[in-house]
Design goal:
Oligomer: single chain
Shape: globular
Strand order of the largest sheet: 6-5-7-1-10-11-2-12
Structural class: alpha/beta
Length: 532
Amino acid sequence: MFANRLDPLRGLYGFLIVVSACLAFTSNHVDAADDQRPNVLFILVDDLGLHDLGVEGSTFYETPNLDALANSSMRFTQGYASCRVCSPSRASIQLGKFTARHGITQWIGAASGMDWKRDDKLLPAEYLHALPHDDVTIAEALSEAGYITFFAGKWHLGGEGSLPTDHGYQINKGGHHRGSPPGGYFAPYKNPELEDGPDGESLTIRLANETVDFITANHDQPFFAMLSFYTVHGPVQTEQSRWQKYQTKAQSLPPRDHRFEVDRTLPVRIVQDHPIYAGMIETMDQAVGLVVDALADAGLDKNTIVVFTGDNGGVSSGDAYSTCNLPLRGGKGRQWEGGIREPFYLRYPPLTGDGMTSDVPVTHADFYPTLLDICGLESRPEQHVDGVSLVPLLRGQSIADRPLYWHYPHYDNQGGEPSSLYRDGDYKLIHYYEDGRNELYDLSKDPAEQNDIADQHPQRVQQMYSQLKSWLDSVGALYPEPDPRYDPQRTAAKWKRMHTTKKESLEKSHAQFLDPNWQPDPTWWGSQVVKD
């Protein structure tokens, strides 16, 4: 009987021993995990089109390093930038929020309100001109967890008081208020946050080398390195040898009598044969290779999360008219898929392997919670409110269906129109603010957005527009207003010029790039001093 009375005590004692052992194991496991937390390398390219890479279908540009990275990553085939221009997308990456919610809806420095003077029907909405300090950036979240943080390249999220070092990055190489490199792509850079190298040094390679130096110096502690290239944003510049290489390569392409077609507002490039831009792409690919190789050389490639993406679509109209995004419609600044679809890769060997792809629509806002999740850190749902962790997709599982929103109540330099977008499943609604009309596309059947089916589905259009408007109002979105100075005749004359004389000028100048006797602006061909 006495023995029977001890049985429950023996059971309790055994239970406590097991619990104690489990707690000890858990404690040791967390400590070990802390010592082996994955590093993060985040590579962001400016103005990169989805089809600017070989792995994504380009046969003119050459990107062997990025093709290899994509093929060893999870490649999200429906990866979206958070905006069709740069600053809003960059803010979404830092904050895990859609643009209408964080308030940076335009590239910082663009005119708004009555300061907009381009003969348009509306006054662009106001917007925030710096990253909000009330938010916790991904760099701040990782820094709080003990990561050393590094930023190199384009920032464009505010100036003094709102530089990378004001938002969680302990080291800043070249990030300041400007969106394009003030001295071009060859030293002297004229960059207040980056020491000049020797005359003719490539800015793109320099930023890669700064990142390599950081990785080498910090290989024994967890780090977050963000390499944010200025390239392939204008000015369009490359080494002379690379221009000659692609000028020669272009001669093998079928002859063309034109390179541009008008799509609603501006001429749009319809062929990839720009030899200077191709050289920029190759230099960027070389730079990525330097950094990825540095991880392997340091023995860190198996324990480093590598992210690669772009901030908005390729420049097919406006600016340098430098690339073609077909079969996607539009490009940077425009409301169609060419303006927001991006290369979107994530490599982390414990979770990803060769040839992995996902066709689930994902966005920039998802990077924040995904990185926290992989790094074993607590999520911050009050911060990355519009993003979701993509780890289930990396594991071959699923994530819940969700609506995606874009808000751009502005005009731009590329012919885009003030509008908001809403994707629900395969359907994408575009609401235009000039006249209140809606376009509807079924992306599963019409990824090129050539067939507006709004008239065929009036109930769906009304339901989607109501949902879009409700969400925008709930986050305090700002809208454009009528411009009292609007003169429809002046506006019509502007677009007529763009469709005629501008198009003719583009055809002539872009044909000249392929002339073996072409000479660039003498202010930037200093790259001749560089030995490739």
